[in-house]
Specification:
The protein has one domain (about 5-120): 3-Layer(aba) Sandwich (Rossmann fold). A 6-stranded parallel sheet has the order 3-2-1-4-5-6, sandwiched between helices. The protein has 4 helices and 6 strands, in the order βαβαββαβαβ. α4 (about 105-110) links the parallel β5 (about 95-100) and β6 (about 120). The longest helix has 11 residues, at about 75-85. With about 120 residues, it is of the alpha/beta class.
Length: about 120
């Protein structure tokens, strides 16, 4: 069985909490995509093993066994979804998308993104 690739788009505190509790052996590759230079330096100091740390989605090609966690600020969801759309070449290559963006509904993401396999996880207190 092929292992999934996992992409965290944005790597703030919520994404880091999820990452720290993952069974990393379940994934062929894990990519942390963080555009902020200072945050990437901070992440790099934590020594995340074989996990890749990237500045952008450039060069990524998704496939249907991939999982994408949208962990960006709500005002960035639309541009990130459009960027993901541009990286999907064929319908058979649709990744599963999980959003942890506060206040962003799956309905609003489905209006932007090409595919419909979307979950939204966010707990409010």
């Amino acid at each position: 069985m092929a292992k999934n690739k996992l992409y965290f788009i944005g790597y703030g505190h919520m994404a880091e909490a999820i990452y720290q509790r993952l069974d990393k052996s379940l994934f062929e590759n894990i990519c942390l995509i963080e555009k902020d230079d200072d945050r990437r330096i901070s992440i790099d100091k934590k020594k995340h093993g074989k996990t890749q740390l990237l500045k952008s989605l450039q060069g990524i090609k998704f496939c249907n066994s991939d999982i994408v966690i949208l962990a960006v600020k709500p005002n960035q969801i639309k541009s990130i979804c459009n960027e993901i759309n541009s990286l999907i070449i064929e319908k058979k290559d649709l990744p599963v998308v999980i959003s942890i963006a506060a206040g962003v509904t799956t309905t609003s993401i489905k209006e932007i993104i090409l595919f419909k396999k979307i979950s939204h996880i966010f707990k409010t207190f």
